[in-house]
Structures are given as C-alpha cells and as structure tokens.
Amino acid sequence: IMIEDEAIVAHNTTPDVVDLQRALYRMKEAGCEYVVMEVSSHALALNRVAGCEYDNAALTNITQDHLDFHKTLENYRDAKGLLFEHLHEGKKENKTAVFNMDDASSPILCDRTKTRILTYGEGRNNDIYPLFFKVEAKQMRLQLHTPVGEMDLLLKITGEFNVYNVMAAVAIALAEQIDKKTIVDVLNGFDGVPGRFQLVEAGQPYTVIVDYAHTPDGLENVLKTARSITEGKLWVVFGCGGDRDNKKRPIMGRIALELADRVVVTSDNPRTEDPAVIIDEIAEALKDVPEGKSVELIAERRDAIYHALSEAAANDVIMIAGKGHENYQILADKTIHFDDREVVQEYWKKR
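The structure corresponding to this sequence follows.
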C-alpha cells in the first residue's frame, strides 16, 4: 500500500475489511484525492470491500488462477463480476465500467452492469483500439483510436500484453475526464513496474528479463513477447507455487515447451509442498521434447538461474518468470530473502 511516498506492507492483494478501511482513512487524512486499488476475487467473495463505493471499475482479463479457492472458472468469473454488478449502487454519479472485449468474460459481465461502459480491444467496434503498434526490445510504438482522438505513444514498456494494459489505463483516465495531452505525456514518461518484463543489466552478452508471470495466460504472454525480440534461443526459468491451484502446473509446462527453446523448471514459493512433487507435476507435460529443444529440472532456484546464465549464448534471451518484484521465497518452515534480479547481478559479479 502506497500513501504518497510511504510504503506499507500488505499481506493480501486486497486487505481485510478493517485494515482496508483503516488504510483508506489514512489516505483521506493525508489529503489523497484518488485511490487506485486492485480488487481481488477473494476480497469480493469474502466481502472484504464492504462499504467501498467505486467511481470506476476495470476488467483486464480472467484466466485460470485461484481455482484452489473458487473451484471453477465460472465461480471465479462470478466473484469478479460482483464488482461490476454492484458498481451502480451508492451515491456517486457518472460511474464507468471498463471492459477488455477480447476477454471471453467481458460480454457476460457487461450484461450485468448498469453503469456507462467503455470498451477496449483489437476490434474497431470498441471505444479504444490499436491502429498500429511496434514491439521493440526496450520500447514500443503505439497509436490508439480513442473517443477524444488518436493518441501517438512512444512507451518505455513493451509487449503486446502491454498494449492491453495501456488501453485499460487510457479508458480509466478518460472516465476520470483527464485530458488527452496529460494521458499521453504521463504514459510516455512511465518507466514500467519493477518485476514486470523488467530487463536486468549486469554486463552480460545476452538479454535477461524478470517477470511476475505465474499463470498460464501470463507465461504465454511474456514468452510470446520475448520470442518476438529473440535472435538466438529463448530460455525460460519458472516454477509453480505450492499450496495453490495444481491444475495449472502441466498447462504451464506445455506452454513453456511450446514457446521456449530451453526450459528450466524450478521452485517458486513451494510453501508446505515438496518442491520435487510440484516439479514432477509440471514435468508431466515435458516428456516429449522436440528435437532442438531441452528441458532441465533443477529444484534449487538459484542453481536453476545460474544454469541458464552459464549456458546461454550471445543472442539468447532468458526469461525468469514467476516472482518478478518479489524478494522472498516461501518455504515450509520459513521465508527467506530471494530476488531473481539480485541473483543475476550476483552471478555476473562472481564472473
């Protein structure tokens, strides 16, 4: 939780109802005029956001995640849908719901929404859609159609998935009646989010990217983007969290093998589960390795990253996925400090 420049550790994506209201009160006392908040499906299902009235709400996408809690994708969608079904309630006026119409859940949730709707997506029947974009290693050119005219952007973030993130941000800003020039200037000046498709520079002859992708959809998106900038081999180092949805493990294994040339499966917050068991469940999808590709199973995450760093060639790209901004590893009996970015720097300092 950020209040101006003060950072407060939150233990859930959306805090418990009492902690949340306390944080909102502190923000009001500090003179904050806007609050931007991630509302999790857990929070909606468990009513953690009771008492909150939103001005605008946006749906980016709904893909397989949290099925250990929701059991089915339909339940997960319905939990997310609560945000939009109740958006019209309360005293505030001129509310807006923003939907990514390239996500299958959006038409369903649109029908349950009683406020004004702004849409974005690939199709030209949307309020916001891309006219042109060019993905490069360290930047992206993007031209958008919007209700207030075309926006020409030269962004410091890259990847087709970020085209969607930018369109969502533009829609929300327009819903808040922020002027076009301000939107363009702020987006062009945005340096990106730590741990989200973050390039790590340590003097290495190849490209290293760290990303938070920990779902099938997330892994597919970042690997497709990495593939578009890879001249040599594409590496992926990843694992799956313990005590969480185990159905996604072989799915992520299949995606890694399909999109990368070198797959290194390792640990990612194993919690109370045996890391070897998690890796074996991922490896179910890695039995038939095509000629020219390779798979390594290395349980110790530092060793797995070191392996990729030591074997990669000059034009290769190494995607280290799953932890992103996280600087810890959750084990059965303790939480230890662990930062993928630091491990890359550490390796090259030793070299």
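The chain has two domains: 53-189, 198-350.
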